[in-house]
């Protein structure tokens, strides 16, 4: 199982971090050891003083495929969830400055949180989601605002990586990312449904 993530997929978020709007999807991967689920606590890692939440719609791949055309991509998924792409922002900024890959900032243990999967009941590009930190809404997203839609992402990614059943795609975060500290509680929703609820330790 692999976890493929899209960076800078919402224009306002790309800008809040001072990045250009990309003309191709920005891709990075996390290993399966990055997964955190079942509302388990997230422990802040020792190597960062600035871990950020990034709430993202996560698509689960249902069957194997390679070089999938965008018009057929919707046959490859039927379930989604909300997840957190935890990012050690201080580490990432240092790596970005040096032009180095982001894995140390993005792919560490338990950096890929997933909530409960729910069946996709509405068009994937018309889904509202939001994240609460300590009961205050900090991120509000609408999948219509993605720069590259899910089917385009699947098509692009599957030219490089064969997709397999159970693979997960983190589709990028809207604006509003920020730090977490010990004792914070993160709660995520898709539409009105609670998808995860866990603590930072
Ligand atoms: Zn992200």
Notable features of this structure?
Fumarylacetoacetate hydrolase, domain 2; eight-stranded mixed β-sheet; alpha+beta; binds zinc ion; about 200 residues
Would you kindly provide a written description of the structure presented here, covering whatever features stand out?
By secondary structure, the chain is α+β, with helices and mostly antiparallel strands. The protein has one domain (3-199): Fumarylacetoacetate hydrolase, domain 2 (Alpha-Beta Complex). It is 15% helix and 34% strand. It is built from four helices and 15 strands. The strands form three sheets. Strands 1, 2, 3, 5, 6, 8, 9 and 12 form an eight-stranded mixed sheet that branches. Strands 11-10-14-15 form a four-stranded antiparallel sheet, with no helix packed on it. The chain is globular. The model has no long low-confidence stretch (mean pLDDT 97). Zinc ion binds at residues 5, 7, 54, 56, 85, 170, 172-173.
Describe what is shown at a glance.
The protein has four helices and 15 strands. It has 201 residues and is α+β, with helices and mostly antiparallel strands. The relative contact order is 0.28.
Listing every helix as H and every strand as E from the N terminus to the C terminus, the arrangement reads: EHEEEEEEHHEEEEHEEEE
CATH class bucket: Alpha Beta
Q: What assembly state would you assign to the polypeptide chains in this entry?
A: single chain
Structural class: alpha+beta
**Mean pLDDT over the residues:** 97
Number of helices: 4
Identify the bound ligands. Answer: zinc ion
Radius of gyration from CA coordinates? 16 Å
CATH 4th-level superfamily: Fumarylacetoacetase-like, C-terminal domain
Number of domains: 1
- Under CATH, the topology is which? Fumarylacetoacetate hydrolase, domain 2
Our measurement of the CA-to-CA distance between the termini, rounded to an integer number of angstroms, reads: 27 Å
Query: What is the overall shape?
Result: globular
């Amino acid at each position: 199982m692999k976890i493929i993530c899209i960076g800078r997929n919402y224009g306002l978020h790309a800008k809040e971090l001072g990045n250009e709007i990309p003309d191709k999807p920005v891709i990075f991967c996390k290993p399966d050891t990055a997964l955190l689920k079942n509302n388990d606590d997230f422990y802040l890692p020792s190597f960062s003083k600035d871990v950020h939440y990034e709430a993202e719609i996560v698509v689960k791949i249902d069957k194997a495929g390679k070089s999938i055309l965008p018009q057929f991509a919707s046959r490859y998924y039927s379930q989604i969830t909300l997840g957190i792409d935890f990012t050690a922002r201080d580490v990432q900024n240092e790596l970005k400055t040096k032009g180095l890959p982001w894995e140390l900032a993005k792919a560490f243990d338990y950096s890929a949180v997933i909530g409960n999967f729910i069946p996709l009941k509405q068009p994937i590009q018309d889904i509202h989601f939001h994240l609460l930190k300590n009961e205050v809404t900090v991120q509000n997203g609408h999948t219509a605002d993605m720069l590259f839609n899910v089917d385009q992402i699947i098509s692009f990614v599957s030219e490089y990586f064969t997709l397999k059943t159970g693979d997960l795609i983190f589709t990028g975060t809207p604006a509003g990312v920020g730090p977490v500290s010990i004792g914070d509680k993160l709660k995520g929703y898709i539409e009105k449904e609670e998808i995860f609820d866990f603590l930072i330790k």
